[in-house]
Amino acid sequence: MSALGRGLASLIPQREPALAAPVEIPLARIRRNPFQPRQRVEQEALEQLAASIAEHGVIQPVLVTQTLDGYQLVAGERRVRAAQMAGLERIPAVIRQLADHAQLELALVENIQRTDLDPIEEAHAFRQLIDEFGFTQEQLAARFGRARSTVTNTLRLLETDPRVQAAVSDGTITEGHARALAGLPTTHQARLLDVVVSRELSVRQTEELVRRVRDGAPERPKQRTQEADPDLERVEEDLRRSLGTKVSLMRSRRGGRIVIEYYSDEELGRLYERLIGGTE
Q1: Which residues are CB-neighbours of 101 under 8 A, at least 6 positions away?
Q2: CATH number assigned to the domain covering 23-115
Q3: What angle separates helix 119-133 from helix 148-156, to the nearest 10 degrees?
Q4: Per-residue pLDDT tens over the stretch 221-237
Q5: Is 0.70 surpassed by the pTM of this model?
Q6: Which of 61, 138, 144, 224 is a Cys-bridge partner for 22, taking CB atoms 3.0 to 4.6 Å apart?
Q7: pLDDT tens-digit profile of 4-47?
């Protein structure tokens, strides 16, 4: 009978376990997620969401885990805050029991998918997953659908001067500008940041400026009005895509040079294999 039972079980499609249905829980009993990667919430966007919730209610439930004295928020902080602003007392929620690393991971996934995190917040979240929960950069890349080099470059942002990080967070410069500035000692980065912002330099011009500073040349980047060589840019982009890291081409009167950057011994080994002729 047991053998027959196993045979029937293999023939009859088995139902997937039902997901927990949303329930209404008091907002006053929800505590903030200590692993929330987002550090800033735009007030205007929050007010717009609150107005929408006041009119239509909370459409998507938040995710919480139950505690001894209530609930801890896992994902949905903007919805909770907006619901409070709208005067709601209860909010729909899905309750799941999650370990600490799962709470951080889910909060990070939700925010990344919604593009709600700025690059610095994302870098801090990646660092926390590595330092506190033992993730490797390869695991982060696989989990969040990123290239390994992208995770490495994001983490490098945390090595920049605090002023550079603040400029990335508030949108004064891009992540590409910050990665270029990361090629200098932190004692030089703030000074170069002022130059980049005041002259409205592009990422490529910033990379050239950093190179000139490293080489001891005067800080005179190309003017914005000077046209870039489209063929050179195309070759540069093809090399970056092929090697999976930042590649810069610099022409001179007698040829030029190719600069290939790497950020760990492991990445150097990967580049070596690729350039020598090995495969990944």
Answers
A1: 129, 132, 133, 135
A2: 3.90.1530.30
A3: 100
A4: 444 434 456 777 778 77
A5: no
A6: 61
A7: 444 434 444 444 444 567 888 899 998 887 766 665 666 777 78
